[in-house]
Write a structure and sequence with these properties.
Length: about 675
């Protein structure tokens, strides 16, 4: 019998995967490999760095040397590896090339043959081992300049043009220690602050990915969204990226440099996007790569100029039975984004303003159905309420997407703080049920009913749309979304109701668990169709009779008139038998009555408290009597009223329940 096992990746594949992983994160160490022809002085260069003096007696190969972080300019531990053709073969060479973060090809400035071998042997074998498009930087090192009075730069510049992986070239002397420390500094710098992702040497211009990244940073820092970085915004940028104040004289010098190199770089004493990009091009051309890289990494970019996954989606623990919501920090952040891009201050985002808001993101996170899921203006523009509600829904359904877009939009992420501080993880559902009161602010309502029962119009009514308006969207060929969300008031507190239209164009017995479990269920039937209620009744008995989920049965299309239902029990009797709130009649023919949505949210706020509907109606009655004032009433002011209503509801319940009725079994004269 032949037994097969999964194929393990080759050493090369593993090393490439490992290198890709570490290059996508902040580098924590540097591994420098020195290669070259015998006798060029590789070992002497290493020993001169370590001992700070030239060794007359040099072994064929130096042992691997580790330099602690605190004695290196870039403050990272550095491993220096020597390769010897005399003691090692090509197998060992391949392994060392795969482990190296930067490769120094050493040649003898006094020996042209060693220079020729760079292009005929060393660079080709590096490419064949690492791949044609490898990202490991190469530094050409000309040793023994103490023996000549000329430079070899003219000979190696053509090589730098031919091989893009060559980061730089430096000449040194192991004997006189000239440029020895600089050599290893540049080697570290090539790893930590690589040039190729930022700058195209042939075009003498920044790469497109670098420009795009800098544009995102510029837009984030342009807090007032006027297309300029004024002095205050530049000070904030300097403080956030470099943790150092920017002196007024230094800022004036920066502006002067930009103006000399870019005509439109400064406008009305503010730096434009063009000026900002030119400034960083000048940094790189002058060898100050670390200045640009520091800013890029502060805003989440890795060595490939992609935003890191751990920057976009930090770890957030979400136990089973809990949900995720925006807290006040999250609301404040998205509010600031809306205000920043609502230029005409009409509390709505036109298409241009919406595009501007998400210009720092890969795309707009929601499709066209967004405008049918939340409140919009008569022109179809996204309102402030709709914008916030959509983020509430996104956080409930896909919290990682919310955190990802918060990062793209410029949420201030540091080592000490990230997007998780703007997210609240709710209490477990079982605890809410035990306490008979939910601590959540966002409730998920599943709307279930037979086809043509009016589920879509009920959902669209949540955002204030009548039957005619809903039909207009459908007639225009617009696909209506499954989810609709809006804010409702529950005893003076703002809560968010997310209604999902459950598609039941299939056998009801196969309703998935994720389409059953919710905070409150709304079972809809067509009160003008005698065959509609049976579907709702069977759905309740199959799925909700044994669940601890509040259920409200809704008779839709009440404007068409109620008819007797072809079922063993009529809706009112069915609800009474199973201790459900009475059926709620609903119609949105001419206007939408928001009472049903407040009722659903109230039932979700008080799970397993079936008298909650009674509280709702008692409160409505008390408002009419003037006991409770109209409008939104804070919890502190309504505490007495709620307690009174709860007591009344309990007494009514006791009287109506035959098993608890004190008059049960007695007769009257």
């Amino acid at each position: 019998m032949l037994v097969t096992t999964p194929m393990m990746p080759s050493t090369r594949e593993y090393r490439q995967a490992e290198d890709l992983y570490f290059r996508s994160h902040c580098r924590r160490d540097v591994r420098i490999l020195l290669v070259g022809e015998p006798g060029v002085g590789k070992t002497s260069v290493i020993l001169s760095l370590v001992s700070e003096e030239f060794a007359d007696s040099v072994p064929p190969r130096s042992e691997e040397i580790t330099i602690p972080a605190d004695v290196t300019p870039e403050l990272v531990p550095t491993n220096i590896v020597d390769y010897s053709t005399q003691e090692q073969g090509e197998t060992e060479l391949g392994e060392e090339l795969l482990r190296a973060h930067v490769i120094c090809v050493v040649y003898d400035v006094n020996n042209e043959e060693t220079i020729d071998r760079i292009s005929t042997y060393w660079l080709p074998i590096i490419r064949s081992t690492l791949g044609e498009d490898h990202k490991v930087p190469v530094i050409l090192v000309g040793n023994k300049i103490d023996l000549v009075d000329y430079t070899t730069m003219e000979m190696v510049v053509p090589l730098m043009n031919e091989f893009a992986e060559i980061e730089t070239c430096i000449e040194c002397s192991a004997k006189t220690l000239r440029n020895i420390s600089e050599l290893f500094y540049y080697a570290q710098k090539a790893v930590l602050h690589p040039t190729s992702p930022l700058y195209n040497s042939d075009k003498k211009e920044l790469t497109d990915k670098c420009k795009k990244a800098l544009e995102r940073i510029f837009r984030i820092c342009d807090v007032n969204n006027d297309g300029l970085m004024d002095d205050l915004e530049m000070y904030a940028f300097q403080k956030f990226c470099y943790d150092a104040p920017l002196q007024p004289q230094a800022l004036d010098s920066v502006k002067a440099i930009i103006q000399r190199n870019c005509e439109d770089g400064v406008f009305v004493n503010g730096i434009t996007l063009s000026g900002f990009i030119v400034l960083h091009r000048l940094f790189i051309q002058r060898g100050k790569h670390e200045t640009t890289w520091t800013a890029l990494r502060k805003y989440g970019y890795n060595d490939e100029l992609n935003v890191c996954n751990d920057y976009l989606c930090p770890v957030l623990s979400i136990p089973l039975g809990t949900t995720t919501e925006l807290n006040q920090i999250g609301f404040d952040f998205f509010t600031s984004m809306f205000v920043k891009h609502d230029k005409d201050r009409d509390r709505a985002l036109c298409p241009e303003e919406l595009m501007s808001l998400f210009a720092t993101c890969p795309n707009i996170p929601w499709g066209k159905q967004l405008f049918q899921a939340v409140q919009t203006t008569e022109k179809g523009w996204l309102t402030y309420s709709g914008f916030i509600c959509q983020w509430v829904l996104t956080t409930l359904l896909d919290v990682n997407k919310t955190m990802e877009y918060m990062a793209y939009l410029g949420y201030p992420i540091t080592e000490e703080r990230n997007q998780t501080e703007a997210i609240s993880v709710t209490r477990e559902k079982r605890l809410d049920l035990a306490k008979k009161q939910s601590t959540r602010n966002v409730y998920r309502c599943h709307v279930i009913g037979a086809k043509n029962s009016g589920k879509t119009t009920l959902c669209q009514g949540l955002i204030g749309r009548t039957l005619e308006q809903t039909k207009r969207f459908a007639n225009d060929g617009q696909e209506l979304p499954n989810f609709v969300v809006n804010m409702v008031q529950v005893y003076g507190q703002e809560k968010y109701l997310c209604m999902q239209d459950i598609d039941l164009n299939r056998v009801v017995d196969f309703l998935p668990t994720n389409e059953v479990l919710c905070d409150v269920a709304c079972l809809v039937f067509d009160s003008s169709d005698p065959k509609s209620f049976e579907f709702v009744a069977r759905t309740y008995l199959n799925y909700y009779a044994t669940q601890k989920i509040p259920v409200l049965i809704v008779g839709n299309k009440s404007d068409c008139g109620d008819v007797m239902q072809d079922y063993i029990l009529q809706p009112t009797a069915f609800c009474a038998k199973y201790k459900l709130p009475p059926p709620h009649s609903f119609s949105c023919l001419e206007k939408v009555n928001k009472e049903i949505y407040v009722k659903l949210a109230t039932m979700a706020a008080f799970p397993r408290f079936q008298a909650a509907w009674m509280i709702f109606y008692k409160n409505s009655h008390l408002r009419r009597l003037g006991v409770i004032p109209d409008g939104s009433v804070p919890w502190v002011k309504t505490g007495v009223g709620v307690a009174l209503v709860t007591t009344m509801a309990y007494l009514v319940y006791k009287m109506l329940n035959p098993q608890n009725n004190p008059l049960r079994g007695r007769t009257t004269n």
